Fold this protein.
Amino acid sequence: MKRILIREAVKADMPRVLELIRELAVFEREPDAVEVTAAQLEEDGFGSNIAFQSFVAEVEGKVGGMALVYPRYSTWKGVVLHLEDLIVTEAMRGMGLGEALLDRVVQYGSELGVKRISWEVLDWNTPAIDFYEKKGALLLRDWDVVHLDEEGIRNYLKNI
């Protein structure tokens, strides 16, 4: 069995993190949806106004997975942590990288003292759903994700 190293991502990891993000977009059937750049990830993760924390999973010196989290605030619970994405490259799935990354995210949330860690999963991604449920996560199937994209924001503002 190959040794997995989970570590905090560094600025130099961001081009590889972007590759993983693009791979996820293809998997999620939205290959053209990624707008973020490696430079933006570098600035947002390591610049003067840090927006997220990220972890990478390495096997034999190769980054094969990542997890990106950021704090949120719940009016019911207080400080919570949002897991934006947990990605394992297809070639390294089944090696334990996803579990090791999720373990690290949960440890990080505990270190911060958050009241909840939350994330979304596509309803057709049954391997991920099964994985999260086996780890003890609760799926709230009666909630829908709501968002305004850039065009939606512009249109909204035109009407106020």
The beta strands are 4-8, 53-59, 62-74, 78-88, 117-118. The mean pLDDT is 96. The radius of gyration is 16 Å.
